[in-house]
Every structure is written in C-alpha cells, then in structure tokens.
Design brief:
By secondary structure, the protein is α/β, with parallel strands linked by helices. It folds into 2 domains: about 350 residues, ANL, N-terminal domain (Rossmann fold), CATH 3.40.50; about 100 residues, ANL, C-terminal domain (GMP Synthetase, Chain A, domain 3). Helix content is about 30%, strand content about 25%. It is built from 15 helices and 23 strands. The strands form 6 sheets. The protein has a 9-stranded mixed beta sheet with strand order 2-1-9-8-10-11-12-13-14, sandwiched between helices. A 4-stranded antiparallel beta sheet has the order 15-16-17-18, with no helix packed on it. It is globular.
Length: about 475
C-alpha cells in the first residue's frame, strides 16, 4: 500500500552510502572534534565491533542514555549496523524510568558511556528494512510511557521527506540543541535528515543563549530546533546569529504573539513543526505566506497522510471546528510495543491513531492545534502523564487521593499541579521530595501542590479535572 515511499534500506546501510558520497565533508562537530563522513563510518564500525564483542547482536534491544555528542551518533548507528535496536532514554530520566525501559523492552544492555566501545568491524548482517529499527518513548497520558516501534522503511521515509521539505542540502549546518533522543531532534529533520542531505550536525552542550549563539557563529549554523520556552528565552536574550536561516519550533504549541517576534527579532525564518513520535509530522513550508506560518502548525509531509477531525462520537466535524485528531499514513505506527490492551483504545479498527490532540483544519490543509484531550501535561515540550505522577503520590501514606492537572504558565506553556486529598498531615514540599526520591525525571516533580477536602466529580462519579482547573484559575484570578 505504501511501498512507493520506502527505499528498502536500513540506516546502517545508508550511512555507508553517505560516506561514499560525502566522504571528506564534516558530518559531526562535537567540541574540538570535527568528524568527516568517512571517519564517522569507520567509527561506527568500531563501535559495532565493540558491541558485538559484548554479546550484542541482531534484534537485541539496548537502552541508550547519552548526551548530545558524537558518541550518541556513533552508538546509534553502531546498533543499526549490527541489527540491534536502540531504545531511547532522555538524559533527564532517573533510575526508575531506566529500570522500566529495561524491563519493558527486555533490553540486553544499557549504554551510558561508550569510551571503551571499540572493536574490529563486524560482518554486516542482512537486516530487513521493514523490520524494527528503534523504540522511542511516547509522551504518554496513561500511567508509564509506552514504547513506539519504528521500522527502517517508515522512519527513513519520514526523515527523507522532512529533509526535502525543510530545504536541507550539503551546505546545511544543524545545531542539535534539544536532546538527540527526542524524535524532533533525531528525525524532523534533525540529526538523521542533516546526515541524509550531506550536511553537518553540531552538538550543542547547552540551550543557554550565550552558548548556543556563540556556537552558531563559530560553526555558521543555518538551522536549529527549539521548544517554545527556549524560543522565548532566545528572543529575550538580545542576541542574533548572522548565519541562522531557519528556526524550527515544535514540541508544544507556539503562541501567535511569540511566533510573530521570531523573524524581526532573530532575523531568520520561522518554521512551525507539529508531530509525534508515533508518526504524523506537519510543517509550515518555507514558502508559506507569513500569516500561515505564525497562525498554524503546518500540514502533513505525505500525500497519503490521512487526517480525520472528529467529535466525541467519532463523527467528522465541519471544517474549522475543533475536534479530535485521528491519523493514518505511510509512517504512522499501527500499534505500541507489546501493549495490546492499550492499542485497542489508541487505534480505530481501520487503523487510525487517536493522537489525543484537539485541532481544527483550514481550507488549505493546515492544522491549528488547540490543546490536548488526554490527561497529559506539556511542560515546555516535555510530556508528563498525569497518571504516572498520581500513582507515585498515592504510595505516600498521607495521601488519600490525588489528581495531577496542567496549569497555564507564561514561560513553559504548562506546569503541573498536584491536587491532593489527605488522610494525614504532610506538606507540599514533603510530597514533592517524595516524588523526586522515586527516581523520576526532575520535570515530572509537581511544580505546585494544592490541598482540598474533596474532589468535584462528574455525573458518573469521576474526578472532574475541568472543574479543578476552573477552580485553580479562579483562585489565581485568571
């Protein structure tokens, strides 16, 4: 059905090809290191050999938790070349999240340091391009995050189409500011798209404007990607790059007011990006009218991306009306990794993925994101499943019941608030420390803890998060 979009090539094979096309060009810059495509290919072979010597082989899942670096790129491609499956963890993840990933993926190894991964280049096994390439973490809205299986064929198509839409060439220099393990940074078009085009990936150690802008001038960066809070931070910094041509912003909705400031303040084009690790990716195009760029979140990359906007009963809504976004296409998954029960809810019988986003469409085919239908907090682009934090807090002996909800924040977009019904005395700080001690990522610790005697409930007895949010807004005069 979608075969015309697939190249029939794995990422490990693709890098070998890129090394013959762009052999003497710089592939990756990491501090003082300037690595050519030929050198990168050779390094990947040595990493693959080191992994093989440690018992890693075809089909083995390996959790990767590395910072933005040349080592990240070498490790991921080393796993691809072996036919092993990288399972991406974020640098912020704590020990409990890593333990969950290891168990759920049935991972054979965890990589947090690759200084000693060096071996003889192994024989290259024949890997099925339609087979599993990698596992990514979902933003998740129900309990612990799900794993997203991506095949070489569909993921590579998304990368190629993204690189072409975003105008990447051999002269492109991409600054990797957000974690490379994020789908946005990895593939939209990100690290993989830049390498596909023969450009240069520059690893950025910090999103701080002083660091990032100095690096942009030094390496003549042409494109980078941020989440809205970082975009706002850069706008307020008073800095500007003489080489930056495109600033991508995604991961959460960029307000129109901030979007309008990008071009006049930073002197580059804005490209809005809306997508998900499960598949669908939308971009405003570089030749879109200015109003389209600042008021929409783009349109899909593929002619075969099917978009449905429906009401609560799955009935299509009129054009321009807000509804639930469902999608199906050549690079959108058909199910989460080993989550049959959840898949029955997350996907329709005819294969449409329920994204959980509330959107409306325009006559030109662009989407405008209006919010989330699921109980998920988008804290500066990092997605927090309310249920996961609630389950942690419910383990505290003083907590009778809890609901974690999003509250508006002018910088991060949303922050998290834990609304707690107590059975014994405890302070908000003690509860926040309790969550932190559980070993989760710091961004999951509630920003605020409020106490109530009882929750408002719906007609069927469920906690009314809508009324909780309204009460918090009223309390804060919003």
């Amino acid at each position: 059905m979608y075969g015309k979009y697939y190249a029939g090539q794995t990422f490990g094979e693709a890098l070998r090809e890129w090394a013959t096309w762009y052999w003497d060009r710089i592939a990756v810059v990491d501090g003082e290191q300037r690595i050519t495509y030929r050198e990168l290919d050779a390094r990947v072979d040595r990493v693959a050999g080191g992994l093989r010597d440690r018992g890693i082989g075809v089909g083995d899942r390996v959790v990767v938790q590395l910072p933005n670096s040349a080592k990240f790129v070498e490790t991921v491609f080393g796993l691809f070349r072996l036919g092993a499956i990288p399972v991406f963890a974020l640098p912020a993840h704590g020990h409990s999240e890593i333990a969950y990933l290891m168990e759920h993926a049935e991972a054979k190894a965890l990589i947090t340091n690759v200084d000693e991964l060096d071996g003889s280049p192994p024989p290259t096994p024949r890997i099925d391009p339609a087979g599993l390439a990698l596992l990514q973490l979902s933003g998740g809205s129900t309990g612990l995050p799900k794993l997203i299986p991506r095949a070489h064929d569909d993921y590579f198509y998304s990368v190629r189409a993204s690189a072409e839409i975003c105008g990447l060439t051999m002269d492109s220099v991409y600054l990797a500011v957000l974690p490379m393990a994020h789908n946005f940074t990895l593939s939209s078009p990100g690290v993989l798209g830049t390498l596909y085009a023969g450009g240069t990936v520059v690893a950025c150690p910090s999103p701080d404007p002083r660091t990032a802008f100095a690096l942009m001038e030094q390496e003549k960066v042409t494109i980078t990607a941020l989440v809205p809070p970082l975009a706002l931070l850069w706008l307020e910094s008073g800095r500007r790059s003489s080489t930056l041509q495109v600033l991508q912003v995604g991961g959460a909705k960029l307000s129109e007011a901030v979007a309008r400031r990008v071009e006049p303040t930073l002197g580059c084009k804005l490209q809005q990006v809306f997508g998900m690790a499960e598949g669908l990716v939308c971009y405003t195009r570089l030749d879109d009218p200015g109003e389209t760029v600042v008021t929409t979140q783009g349109r899909p990359i593929s002619p075969d991306d099917k978009i449905l906007i429906v009401d609560d009963e799955d009935r299509p809504v009129p054009l321009g009306t807000v509804g639930h976004l469902l999608t199906r296409g050549p690079y959108t998954i058909r199910g989460y990794w080993r989550a049959e029960e959840h898949n029955r809810v997350a996907f329709t019988p005819d294969g449409f993925y329920r994204t959980g986003d509330l959107v409306r469409g325009t006559p030109q085919g662009h989407l405008i994101v209006e919010g989330r239908a699921k109980d998920q907090i988008n804290r500066g682009g990092e997605k927090i499943a309310a249920e996961e934090v609630e389950n942690l807090l419910l383990k505290h002996p003083a907590v009778h019941d809890v609901a974690v909800i999003a509250v508006p924040d002018p910088f991060l977009g949303e922050k998290s608030c834990a609304v707690v019904v107590l059975r014994a005395e405890v302070t908000g700080k003690q509860l926040r420390d309790f969550v932190r001690a559980a070993g989760v990522a710091v961004y999951k610790v509630p920003d605020r803890v409020d106490f109530v005697d009882a929750f408002p409930v719906t007609g069927v007895g469920k906690v009314s998060r809508k009324h909780l949010r309204a009460a918090l807004r009223a309390e804060r005069g919003q």
